[in-house]
Each structure stands twice: as structure tokens, then as C-alpha cells.
Design brief:
Blueprint: E1 2-4, H1 13-25, E2 36-39, E3 54-60, E4 75-80, H2 83-89, H3 104-107, E5 116-121, H4 124-129, H5 132-139, E6 142-143, H6 150-158, E7 160-165, H7 168-176, E8 181-183, H8 192-201, H9 216-224, H10 236-260, H11 270-290
Parallel strand pairs: 1-2, 2-3, 3-4, 5-6, 5-7, 7-8
Helix pairs in contact: 5-10
Pfam families: PS_pyruv_trans (PF04230)
Protein name: Polysaccharide pyruvyl transferase domain-containing protein
Domain Polysaccharide pyruvyl transferase: 56-184
């Protein structure tokens, strides 16, 4: 079967984690046979998959990025990310486990010395537009770039005492590795539904903090919900205004990061995490039996 995951225009830790973690959970399991698709980490439950392919679902979620998929006998659900996914797809709530990335707790947890008091993980889209390296430097917060290789991001998360994160899989992995985290409300509203979905599976009372973006583009998107394509205008006055704002905003974003570092961090209960890991491992056992190779 083929391991399917979302590939964006830039590398992304949450999606790329599939290629590193899933072969550890399912050794010698995957090939390029796209007649059977394996859907694990990510909001990949949508109708874009080939109808004739069997879709094997292991901890995936619905993200509201598209319409909900029309389910038939070519979908085989072992577990899903959270209760909102189950509700949206009309599935039995007993299928709710957690995001499959939670299994880093069993397969990729290392003893890493703490080097950073606070680290910040922006969403990869925020890094395309905003000067977060400068904002983090000004705030004395270590930047973790989700476009870095998976192993590097994992090591950096474990080397942090507290992770501040706009990236959902920054929170998921930090929580699974027992690193306290502070949730940042995503600047793009389209990314917010999936946070609540995953948090619901772990009984987390999710209350993300709004903060200030490091670029005019993300400020516009967060306030209006619309794209900021007008900022690419070649009009000189527009470019001068955008440039002046982008020069100033990292200083404001840095103040926001310092404020976030003072907030009480979050960590799911040991009981909730253990239950999620157990449900994921039970589902993995069933998949290995059903698709024994």
C-alpha cells in the first residue's frame, strides 16, 4: 500500500513526519501501490482520492479545507484524529483515538538535554511572509522552523522547556513528548478547526492565545480572512507602505512572544495520553493483521 500525505509548496514538519514515523510503526509495510492508500498524519480525509483506491484511515482528520468525503466501501476506518472528524463524517465516536503523530511518544522519544527556555514554531505559511527569525531574536526565544528536517525539529522540541506554537503538529508532538506548550491562534482561520478536533481527543480545554503577526500580510489575513494579494502590487506607494509595516511588525511580534512566554503552558493528562496511545496501537495491530505481508 502507498503512504499518502499532503505535500505543500514547502517542506512541513507535520506532513513530513509521516515518512519518518509511519515506517517505524509499520515496518516493511509501504510501497508505491496506489490501489491502496494509507492515510495517517494530517487533514487528508477529503474527496480528492481516486474512487477505485481503498483508503485505509489511521488517525487522520477532516480539516474543513474541502467538503467532507462521500464514504463508501472503499473507505476502511481504523481510527480518526478527533470527535469533530467523527461528527463531520458521521462515524462512530468509538473510532476517535488521536492524531497518529501522538505515536512519537513510543517510537521517537529520546533523552535530550534542555538548551532552550522557550521555543517558537510558526505555521510554515507564516514563515513565507513574516520575519519570525528577527522577532524570535528580539524576544530571546529560539525559532523552530517547521520546514527543517523532521529529526532536527524533534530534537529542538525535546531540547525546549516550553514550546510556543502556531503549528498544530508542534503542539501535538510536544504534548506527546511531554514538553509543555502554549497554543497560538493560527493567523489563517482555515487552520483552526483541526486544532479543536485533536484537542478534543485528548480532553484538552483548548484556549489558544491571539498574538501579533510579524508581517502585514498575516495581519491582513488574520483580521479579514481574505488573501493579501494586493500587497504584491507594483505601485510604489503600496510597496513603500508594505515595506514600512514589515520593518516595524517584527518588533511588535517580539512583544507578543514575550507575553506568550508568561502564559501558563498546556499539557494533556498522562491518563488521556496513555489512552490515546493505546487506541492508536490497538488500531495499528488490527491493520497489521488485516494487511499482513
Amino acid at each position: 500500500m502507498k503512504l499518502y500525505y499532503y505535500r505543500s509548496i514547502a517542506p512541513n514538519f507535520g506532513d513530513d513526519l509521516n515518512n519518518v514515523l509511519m515506517p517505524k510503526v509499520f515496518p516493511r509495510f509501504f510501497d508505491e501501490d496506489d490501489l491502496t492508500l494509507f492515510l495517517a498524519i494530517g487533514s487528508v480525509l477529503f474527496d480528492h482520492h481516486p474512487h477505485q483506491a481503498l483508503k485505509v484511515v489511521f488517525g487522520s482528520g477532516f480539516g474543513q479545507y474541502t467538503a467532507a468525503p462521500r464514504l463508501d466501501d472503499r473507505w476502511k476506518f481504523y481510527c480518526v484524529r478527533g470527535p469533530l472528524t467523527a461528527q463531520a463524517l458521521g462515524l462512530d465516536e468509538r473510532l476517535v483515538a488521536a492524531d497518529a503523530a501522538v505515536l512519537v511518544n513510543r517510537h521517537m522519544r529520546d533523552e535530550v538535554p534542555k538548551r532552550f527556555k522557550f521555543s517558537y514554531i510558526p505555521h510554515w505559511q507564516s514563515l513565507l511572509n513574516g520575519d519570525w527569525p528577527k522577532a524570535c531574536e528580539l524576544a530571546n526565544v529560539e525559532l523552530i522552523d517547521p520546514r527543517w528536517p523532521v529529526d532536527r525539529v524533534l530534537e529542538m522540541i525535546q531540547a525546549s522547556n516550553t514550546v510556543i506554537t502556531e503549528a498544530m503538529h508542534g503542539a501535538i508532538v510536544a504534548d506527546a513528548l511531554r514538553v509543555p506548550w502554549v497554543p497560538v491562534l493560527p493567523f489563517h482561520r482555515s487552520h483552526r478547526f483541526k486544532w479543536s478536533d485533536w484537542a478534543g481527543a485528548l480532553m484538552i480545554d483548548l484556549r489558544p492565545y491571539a498574538t501579533f503577526p510579524a508581517t502585514l500580510h498575516d495581519l491582513w489575513v488574520s483580521k479579514t480572512g481574505r488573501d493579501g494579494n494586493w500587497m504584491s502590487s507594483k505601485n510604489r506607494l503600496v510597496q513603500l507602505a508594505v515595506g514600512a509595516a514589515n520593518n516595524a511588525l517584527p518588533y511588535i511580534a517580539a512583544r507578543g512572544l514575550r507575553r506568550l512566554s508568561e502564559m501558563e503552558p498546556v499539557l494533556s493528562s498522562d491518563v488521556a495520553l496513555a489512552k490515546a496511545v493505546s487506541k492508536l496501537e490497538d488500531a495499528a495491530d488490527r491493520i497489521r493483521r488485516d494487511f499482513h505481508r
